[in-house]
Amino acid sequence: MSLDNITLISFGYFEKELLEMIVQDVGQEFMLPVKTREGHLDLSEFHNASRRQYDGFRLLKEIDTNFSSSSVKTIGLFDVDLFIPILTYIFGQAYLNGKSGIASIFRLRNERYGLKRDDKILVDRFRKEVIHELGHSFGLIHCHDSGCVMQSSTYVEDIDMKSHHLCPKCREQLKI
Amino acid sequence: MVKKVSILIVDDEESVRDSLYNWFIEDGYRVECAENAKTALTILQSDNFDIVLADIKMPGMDGLEMLRRIKSLRKDSIVIVMTAFATVDTAVQALKDGAYDYVTKPFDPDDLSHLIRNASRQIALAEENEILKDRVVSLENVDDIIGNSVSMQMVFHEIESVANSNASVIITGESGTGKELVAKAIHANSPRRFFPMVSVHCGALTESLLESELFGHEKGAFTGAVYNRKGRFEMADSGTIFLDEIATISPKMQVELLRVLETKSFVRVGGNKEISSDFRVICATNRDLKGLVDKGLFREDLFYRLNVVNIHVPPLRERTEDIPLLVDYFIRKYCISMNKAPMTIDPSALKRMDDYNFPGNIRELENMIERAIVVGNGKKITVKDLPLWKETVNPTFESLDDLGKKHIYQILNKYSWNISASAKALKLDRVTLYNKIKKYGLKPPK
């Protein structure tokens, strides 16, 4: 057990290459070792039949309670449509200055918006989402720098506009 | 520095509260939650929030009733009501009761961000508007300080040298010499000029009224306290507070004032939360404050705290060379405001004014010119247009003081001792009238 690394736990199937690319980018951004492992959860318990979505807030609590003890930060990776009670959907969320976060690839796929599948774009969006949620867990709030990965994104187009890097101001805040 | 917007979330569902809390925290807002209306109202009694986001359907007191109560606490608060079951009736009722907006759960993430961003913008605009209004008021009369005399040049020099500091200032001078204008000039030339200058006429208020005026009060602190109200110290945050007639405040208020000046913090009447404010204090008095200290009527420690810099505004009779300049200035001012063609003044009228000792100082001179423009022929002000003319023709052996006393008494009786109406008729401000009543020992007829 090591408390000086970031753990990405995949719930569901993710391609090995995709995970490897994300591990590399996350590690470079936060200057910490990153490891991945598989997690097992009965997602039906988190399914909301009337909304036909998965309760992101409960999933975050679950990750925080039962999966986050072995790392400095833990992010749960999902491939389901996430919501929180007040919002129609979310790409991910994390506890500000906490130990855990979640991110879903579900709404990041081009096909969802009637466009041609593009794996390169998908990886790019997912790594940004994972780094964004990790940023929150390290205490960063939304950033107004248009290129910073910590800028708030409500649509995939917003994610595409920003880079997967933290801006100098956010880096300074994290002292990295 | 950008102010952090604060949001209070009121919803009986824990998951809604937590998810909203998380969402707003990530956006950098200050957020608190309440699980019902009663808790929310308790929180709002002791803490201010810029935006309240409240569910309509809650057990106990519903969101609409809470909205009405919040509005009775703070009229300007922004309340956004949320519901899972939108109906036109409740939406209309909520907006009628003063809700800023009415939204249906769940929101699109973008809608929520826009909603809060727009509300934040409205808050910022309202605050900026208040600051600018105060600034306009504080600047509009600064040009009214007129004088080429050596004594006034000294005053200008003192204003200039003290403006940039944060030092407390006491402005002394007889009634009507323009002490408040000097205070406004100091503020307008200071780094605090983009923030409010708040004036308090201490002499016109009783001890309890002054306390609530200076420190503010919580709803229900006393009969008539129907709203939470910010005090003048709170309003003067980042700006200047001007305490006129400082010599009139009671010993109890002197202690309170000293404490506030030392700590720059205070508690509203009926409240329990310590409020901090960064203000500069400027005081004015027409009395000899040091003399009052020697007599034990004014606290020495407070005197030294306030009297870091003293600016004395000379009476008009000691700078008669400024009279032509002042007359010219007031003629121009009133001809413009009364839509009259520019007028001149007869040299004999000016000479008559030069010989007069102006116990009411500039205020008396200003009133004299205003009156002369109203009653005059519209071209030239002559001796006949001046109230001094009668005294010339019908000399009296009574002193000016006695005449003033008689006249004030007559006017007070005419207006059944209504201070505002009498002060208006006498062209005096209420504080001066109160002081004159006190000075002459005038009492209403039994």
The SSE string of chain A, one letter per element, is EHEEEHEEEEEHHH
CATH superfamily placement of the largest domain in chain B: P-loop containing nucleotide triphosphate hydrolases
Shape of chain B: elongated
Strands side by side in the biggest sheet of chain B: 2-1-3-4-5
> What is the number of strand segments of chain A?
9
- In the CATH hierarchy, what is the class of the largest domain in chain B? Alpha Beta
Q: Greatest interface and its residue counts?
A: A-B, 22 and 21 residues
The tally of strands of chain B reads 16
**Structural domain count of chain B:** 4
CATH architecture of the largest domain in chain B: 3-Layer(aba) Sandwich
Low-confidence stretches of chain B: none
Question: Helix content range of the residues of chain B, please?
Answer: 40-55%
Distance between the termini of chain A: 24 Å
- Mean of pLDDT of chain B: 86
Distance between the termini of chain B: 60 Å
Could you report the average pLDDT of chain A, rounded to the nearest whole number?
92
Kindly summarize this structure in a few lines.
Chain A contains 5 helices and 9 strands; from the N terminus they run βαβββαβββββααα.
Question: How would you describe this structure to a colleague?
Answer:
The complex is a heterodimer of chains A (176) and B (446). By secondary structure, chain A is an alpha/beta fold. Chain A is built from five helices and nine strands; from the N terminus they run E-H-E-E-E-H-E-E-E-E-E-H-H-H. Helix content of chain A is 33%, strand content 20%. Chain A has a five-stranded mixed sheet with strand order 2-1-5-9-8, sandwiched between helices. A four-stranded mixed sheet of chain A has the order 3-4-6-7. In chain A, a hairpin with a 2-residue loop joins strand 6 and strand 7 (87-90). In chain A, helix 1 (16-30) crosses helix 3. The relative contact order of chain A is 0.15. Chain B has four domains: 6-134, Rossmann fold (3-Layer(aba) Sandwich); 150-312, Rossmann fold (3-Layer(aba) Sandwich); 318-385, Helicase, Ruva Protein, domain 3 (Orthogonal Bundle), CATH 1.10.8.60; 400-440, Arc Repressor Mutant, subunit A (Orthogonal Bundle), CATH 1.10.10. Helix content of chain B is 49%, strand content 14%. Chain B is built from 19 helices and 16 strands. Chain B has helices at 14-26, 37-46, 63-73, 88-96, 109-140, 150-163, 179-188, 207-215, 232-235, 251-263, 289-294, 300-306, 323-337, 347-355, 361-375, 388-393, 400-414, 419-426, 430-440; strands at residues 6-10, 30-34, 51-55, 78-83, 101-104, 169-172, 197-201, 216-217, 229-230, 240-244, 265-267, 274-276, 280-285, 309-312, 344-345, 380-381. In chain B, the strands form five sheets. In chain B, strands 2-1-3-4-5 form a five-stranded parallel sheet, with helices on both faces. In chain B, helix 2 runs parallel beside helix 3 and helix 18 (419-426) crosses helix 19 (430-440). The chains are: A alpha/beta (176), B alpha/beta (446). Chains A and B meet through helix 2 and strand 7 of A and helix 1 and helix 5 of B.
